[in-house]
Amino acid sequence: MYTNFKKYTPKKPVHKFTDLDVYQQTLALSVIIVKDLRPKLVTLKYAFVENSVISSTSLPMWIAEAHSVRFNDHAVGLGLLEKVMSGCNKMVVYLEQVKGIHGTKLDNDLIDDLVKRYHDVRLKVFRLSKSWQKWYEPKK
């Protein structure tokens, strides 16, 4: 008997950008960056505090914008998703730099968790981009 399988549950339909899992995750990550990490980085005088805050808070806004423009200008919507993936990579770089520069003075478990979560979000945005490309007919 196969008892180790999870019961299949379909995902909720997406009616607005706030329904997107990648939006919810990037929003949660930006809140963690601003509330928990930023104050510590300010006291450590990390040079790129504002850059990392701006990058993390931009990601949910780009997802919302991509969701809005994808029907009118599909290429722009996909381009914004590319920006989100690039932004996730940028956040990983900022976090790895913080860990390298101030590693002993910070909670490395928090940094490692944030890095993992940004990698996961980047992969989900990639999959979202591929699913949006499926219903787009390229010009011949």
Topology readout:
Elements: H1 21-43, H2 49-69, H3 74-102, H4 108-134
Helix pairs in contact: 1-2, 1-4, 2-3, 3-4
Protein name: Four helix bundle protein
Organism: Candidatus Yanofskybacteria bacterium RIFCSPLOWO2_01_FULL_42_49
Structural commentary:
It is a single chain. This protein is mainly α. The chain has one domain: de novo design (two linked rop proteins) (Up-down Bundle), CATH 1.20.1440. It contains four helices and no strands. It has helices spanning 21-43, 49-69, 74-102, 108-134. Helix 2 runs antiparallel to helix 3 (74-102) and helix 3 runs antiparallel to helix 4 (108-134). It is globular.
Give the gist of this structure.
This is Four helix bundle protein. InterPro entries: 23S_rRNA_IVS_sf (IPR036583). The chain is an all-alpha fold and 140 residues long.
| Helical residues, percent | over 70%
Order of helices and strands: HHHH
Roughly how many Å is the radius of gyration? 18 Å
Q: What count of helical segments does DSSP give?
A: 4
Instruction: Kindly report the name of the CATH homologous superfamily.
Output: 23S rRNA-intervening sequence
Please identify the oligomeric state. single chain
Distance between the termini: 51 Å
β-sheet strand percentage: under 5%
Q: Which ranges are low-confidence, i.e. pLDDT below 50, for 5 or more consecutive residues?
A: none
Structural class: mainly alpha
Most strands sheet: none
Q: Please tell me the overall pLDDT.
A: 88
- Shape descriptor reads globular
Which CATH class? Answer: Mainly Alpha
Total strand segments: 0
Tell me the CATH topology: de novo design (two linked rop proteins)
Number of domains: 1
Give the name of the CATH architecture: Up-down Bundle
Protein name: Four helix bundle protein
Organism: Candidatus Yanofskybacteria bacterium RIFCSPLOWO2_01_FULL_42_49
